[in-house]
Write a structure and sequence with these properties.
Layout (H helix, E strand, L loop, with lengths): L2 E11 L2 E10 L38 H12 L8 E7 L4 E7 H14 L10 H5 L7 H21 L9 H24 L4 H26 L5 H15 L1
Helix pairs in contact: 1-2, 2-6, 4-6, 5-6
Protein backbone atom coordinates (compact mmCIF):
# COMPACT_ATOMS: atom_id res chain seq x y z
CA UNK A 1 0.00 0.00 0.00
CA UNK A 2 1.41 3.40 -1.03
CA UNK A 3 2.59 5.72 1.72
CA UNK A 4 2.98 9.49 1.80
CA UNK A 5 5.93 10.66 3.89
CA UNK A 6 6.32 14.09 5.51
CA UNK A 7 9.32 14.90 7.69
CA UNK A 8 9.56 17.73 10.22
CA UNK A 9 13.06 18.56 11.45
CA UNK A 10 12.93 21.07 14.30
CA UNK A 11 16.27 22.42 15.56
CA UNK A 12 15.95 23.81 19.07
CA UNK A 13 19.66 24.35 19.65
CA UNK A 14 22.97 23.51 17.94
CA UNK A 15 23.01 20.09 19.61
CA UNK A 16 19.29 19.26 19.68
CA UNK A 17 17.14 18.42 16.67
CA UNK A 18 13.75 16.75 16.98
CA UNK A 19 12.74 14.78 13.87
CA UNK A 20 9.17 13.65 13.24
CA UNK A 21 8.46 11.29 10.37
CA UNK A 22 4.77 11.27 9.51
CA UNK A 23 3.70 8.33 7.35
CA UNK A 24 0.22 8.58 5.83
CA UNK A 25 -1.74 6.06 3.83
CA UNK A 26 -1.73 7.63 0.36
CA UNK A 27 -5.35 6.62 -0.25
CA UNK A 28 -7.09 7.22 3.08
CA UNK A 29 -4.66 9.80 4.56
CA UNK A 30 -4.76 7.93 7.88
CA UNK A 31 -1.61 8.06 9.99
CA UNK A 32 0.35 4.83 9.56
CA UNK A 33 3.09 5.68 12.03
CA UNK A 34 2.89 3.54 15.17
CA UNK A 35 1.55 5.25 18.27
CA UNK A 36 3.36 5.32 21.60
CA UNK A 37 4.15 1.88 23.04
CA UNK A 38 2.86 3.04 26.42
CA UNK A 39 0.23 5.73 25.80
CA UNK A 40 0.10 8.39 28.54
CA UNK A 41 -2.98 8.55 30.80
CA UNK A 42 -4.24 11.74 29.16
CA UNK A 43 -4.94 9.83 25.92
CA UNK A 44 -7.77 7.81 27.54
CA UNK A 45 -10.97 8.67 25.65
CA UNK A 46 -12.88 9.68 28.76
CA UNK A 47 -10.13 12.02 30.04
CA UNK A 48 -11.52 15.52 29.33
CA UNK A 49 -13.52 13.93 26.52
CA UNK A 50 -14.87 16.38 23.94
CA UNK A 51 -18.62 16.96 24.46
CA UNK A 52 -19.23 16.26 20.77
CA UNK A 53 -17.16 13.05 20.61
CA UNK A 54 -19.03 10.38 18.61
CA UNK A 55 -16.73 7.51 19.67
CA UNK A 56 -17.56 4.73 22.11
CA UNK A 57 -15.02 3.90 24.81
CA UNK A 58 -15.76 0.20 24.32
CA UNK A 59 -14.35 0.27 20.79
CA UNK A 60 -12.01 3.27 21.21
CA UNK A 61 -10.51 3.21 24.69
CA UNK A 62 -7.99 5.87 23.61
CA UNK A 63 -8.68 9.19 21.89
CA UNK A 64 -7.19 8.88 18.37
CA UNK A 65 -6.43 12.60 18.25
CA UNK A 66 -4.56 12.49 21.56
CA UNK A 67 -2.61 9.42 20.46
CA UNK A 68 -1.56 11.15 17.23
CA UNK A 69 0.08 14.09 19.04
CA UNK A 70 1.34 12.28 22.17
CA UNK A 71 4.92 11.93 20.93
CA UNK A 72 5.11 15.58 19.88
CA UNK A 73 3.77 16.71 23.25
CA UNK A 74 6.23 14.47 25.11
CA UNK A 75 9.27 15.69 23.23
CA UNK A 76 8.37 19.37 23.61
CA UNK A 77 7.34 19.23 27.25
CA UNK A 78 10.42 21.26 28.26
CA UNK A 79 10.13 23.87 25.50
CA UNK A 80 8.67 27.34 26.03
CA UNK A 81 6.15 28.52 23.42
CA UNK A 82 8.14 31.57 22.28
CA UNK A 83 11.51 29.80 21.99
CA UNK A 84 12.91 30.35 18.49
CA UNK A 85 13.47 27.22 16.40
CA UNK A 86 14.64 26.38 12.89
CA UNK A 87 12.19 24.16 11.07
CA UNK A 88 12.59 22.20 7.86
CA UNK A 89 9.59 20.39 6.38
CA UNK A 90 10.06 17.89 3.58
CA UNK A 91 6.88 16.92 1.71
CA UNK A 92 6.57 14.90 -1.52
CA UNK A 93 6.26 18.19 -3.43
CA UNK A 94 8.76 20.55 -1.80
CA UNK A 95 11.20 21.45 0.97
CA UNK A 96 10.17 24.36 3.22
CA UNK A 97 12.28 25.98 5.91
CA UNK A 98 11.46 28.67 8.46
CA UNK A 99 12.83 30.40 11.54
CA UNK A 100 9.84 30.68 13.84
CA UNK A 101 8.53 30.14 17.37
CA UNK A 102 8.16 26.65 18.79
CA UNK A 103 4.40 27.13 19.13
CA UNK A 104 4.09 27.98 15.42
CA UNK A 105 6.14 24.93 14.48
CA UNK A 106 3.98 22.74 16.71
CA UNK A 107 0.79 24.29 15.35
CA UNK A 108 1.85 23.18 11.88
CA UNK A 109 2.80 19.58 12.67
CA UNK A 110 -0.05 19.10 15.14
CA UNK A 111 -2.53 20.42 12.59
CA UNK A 112 -1.30 17.78 10.15
CA UNK A 113 -1.43 14.95 12.70
CA UNK A 114 -4.84 15.97 14.04
CA UNK A 115 -6.34 16.05 10.53
CA UNK A 116 -5.15 12.49 9.85
CA UNK A 117 -5.58 11.10 13.37
CA UNK A 118 -8.76 9.13 12.75
CA UNK A 119 -10.90 11.46 14.85
CA UNK A 120 -14.27 11.66 13.04
CA UNK A 121 -14.53 15.38 13.79
CA UNK A 122 -11.28 16.18 11.94
CA UNK A 123 -11.74 13.95 8.88
CA UNK A 124 -12.81 16.90 6.72
CA UNK A 125 -9.26 18.27 6.85
CA UNK A 126 -7.64 15.19 5.28
CA UNK A 127 -7.71 16.61 1.73
CA UNK A 128 -5.84 19.66 3.02
CA UNK A 129 -3.26 17.34 4.61
CA UNK A 130 -2.82 15.64 1.23
CA UNK A 131 -1.32 18.92 -0.01
CA UNK A 132 0.16 19.97 3.31
CA UNK A 133 1.19 23.62 3.45
CA UNK A 134 3.29 24.29 6.57
CA UNK A 135 2.95 27.64 8.36
CA UNK A 136 -0.04 28.70 6.21
CA UNK A 137 -1.66 32.00 7.12
CA UNK A 138 -5.43 32.37 7.74
CA UNK A 139 -6.20 33.41 4.14
CA UNK A 140 -4.31 30.43 2.71
CA UNK A 141 -6.00 28.06 5.14
CA UNK A 142 -9.45 29.46 4.39
CA UNK A 143 -8.94 29.24 0.63
CA UNK A 144 -7.88 25.59 0.93
CA UNK A 145 -10.76 24.76 3.28
CA UNK A 146 -13.32 26.25 0.90
CA UNK A 147 -11.68 24.40 -1.98
CA UNK A 148 -11.92 21.11 -0.06
CA UNK A 149 -15.58 21.76 0.78
CA UNK A 150 -16.55 22.58 -2.81
CA UNK A 151 -14.56 19.61 -4.13
CA UNK A 152 -16.56 17.36 -1.82
CA UNK A 153 -19.76 18.87 -3.21
CA UNK A 154 -18.53 18.12 -6.74
CA UNK A 155 -17.94 14.47 -5.83
CA UNK A 156 -21.43 14.27 -4.30
CA UNK A 157 -22.90 15.68 -7.51
CA UNK A 158 -20.86 13.23 -9.61
CA UNK A 159 -22.27 10.40 -7.48
CA UNK A 160 -25.83 11.54 -8.15
CA UNK A 161 -26.31 12.92 -4.64
CA UNK A 162 -27.58 16.29 -3.52
CA UNK A 163 -24.86 18.94 -3.57
CA UNK A 164 -24.77 22.57 -2.51
CA UNK A 165 -22.72 25.71 -3.06
CA UNK A 166 -23.70 27.02 0.37
CA UNK A 167 -20.87 27.26 2.89
CA UNK A 168 -23.13 26.71 5.89
CA UNK A 169 -21.91 23.13 6.25
CA UNK A 170 -18.28 24.28 6.29
CA UNK A 171 -19.12 26.79 9.00
CA UNK A 172 -20.64 23.99 11.07
CA UNK A 173 -17.49 21.86 10.63
CA UNK A 174 -15.41 24.68 12.09
CA UNK A 175 -17.90 25.15 14.92
CA UNK A 176 -17.44 21.48 15.82
CA UNK A 177 -13.65 21.91 15.62
CA UNK A 178 -13.85 24.64 18.25
CA UNK A 179 -15.26 22.06 20.66
CA UNK A 180 -12.55 19.54 19.75
CA UNK A 181 -9.75 22.08 20.16
CA UNK A 182 -11.01 23.13 23.57
CA UNK A 183 -11.27 19.53 24.70
CA UNK A 184 -7.72 18.92 23.47
CA UNK A 185 -6.52 22.01 25.32
CA UNK A 186 -8.01 20.66 28.54
CA UNK A 187 -6.11 17.41 28.04
CA UNK A 188 -2.85 19.26 27.48
CA UNK A 189 -3.27 21.48 30.53
CA UNK A 190 -3.21 18.33 32.61
CA UNK A 191 -0.45 16.68 30.58
CA UNK A 192 2.28 19.27 30.05
CA UNK A 193 4.66 21.34 32.16
CA UNK A 194 5.26 24.12 29.64
CA UNK A 195 3.01 25.99 27.26
CA UNK A 196 4.34 25.22 23.76
CA UNK A 197 1.91 22.40 22.88
CA UNK A 198 -1.00 24.09 24.63
CA UNK A 199 -0.41 27.36 22.79
CA UNK A 200 -0.15 25.49 19.49
CA UNK A 201 -3.65 24.10 20.04
CA UNK A 202 -4.83 27.54 21.15
CA UNK A 203 -3.59 28.97 17.85
CA UNK A 204 -5.49 26.28 15.96
CA UNK A 205 -8.58 27.08 18.02
CA UNK A 206 -8.30 30.80 17.35
CA UNK A 207 -8.66 30.11 13.64
CA UNK A 208 -11.55 27.67 14.18
CA UNK A 209 -13.26 30.25 16.41
CA UNK A 210 -13.15 32.98 13.77
CA UNK A 211 -13.74 30.82 10.69
CA UNK A 212 -17.56 30.48 10.91
CA UNK A 213 -17.88 34.27 11.00
CA UNK A 214 -15.52 35.33 8.21
CA UNK A 215 -15.61 32.52 5.64
CA UNK A 216 -17.86 34.41 3.24
CA UNK A 217 -16.35 37.84 3.91
CA UNK A 218 -12.83 36.45 3.48
CA UNK A 219 -13.84 34.94 0.15
CA UNK A 220 -15.24 38.28 -0.97
CA UNK A 221 -11.89 39.90 -0.19
CA UNK A 222 -10.18 37.30 -2.41
CA UNK A 223 -12.60 37.95 -5.28
CA UNK A 224 -10.25 40.25 -7.23
CA UNK A 225 -8.11 37.60 -8.98
CA UNK A 226 -11.29 35.82 -10.10
CA UNK A 227 -12.84 38.81 -11.86
CA UNK A 228 -11.26 37.93 -15.23
CA UNK A 229 -12.62 34.38 -15.00
CA UNK A 230 -16.05 35.65 -13.95
CA UNK A 231 -16.09 38.03 -16.92
CA UNK A 232 -15.26 35.18 -19.32
CA UNK A 233 -18.01 33.05 -17.80
CA UNK A 234 -20.47 35.93 -18.16
CA UNK A 235 -19.48 36.35 -21.82
CA UNK A 236 -19.92 32.62 -22.37
CA UNK A 237 -23.38 32.70 -20.79
CA UNK A 238 -24.39 35.68 -22.92
CA UNK A 239 -23.13 34.00 -26.10
CA UNK A 240 -24.98 30.78 -25.24
CA UNK A 241 -28.19 32.71 -24.65
CA UNK A 242 -28.03 34.07 -28.20
Amino acid sequence: MATMHIRYSIRLSPDRVEIFDVHLDAETLEVRSPGPAEPPPWTVLGFHECPNCPLDAQTHPRCPLALSIADVVRRFDDVISHDEVDVEVATPQRLISSRTSSQTALRSIMGLLIACSGCPRTAFFKPMARFHLPFSDPDETMSRAVGAWLSAQYFRHADGKEATLSLAGLQEIYAQMQIVNRGTAERLRAATRTDSSLNAVTMLDAHALLAPYFIESALEEMRGPFEAILAQLDEGSTAAAH
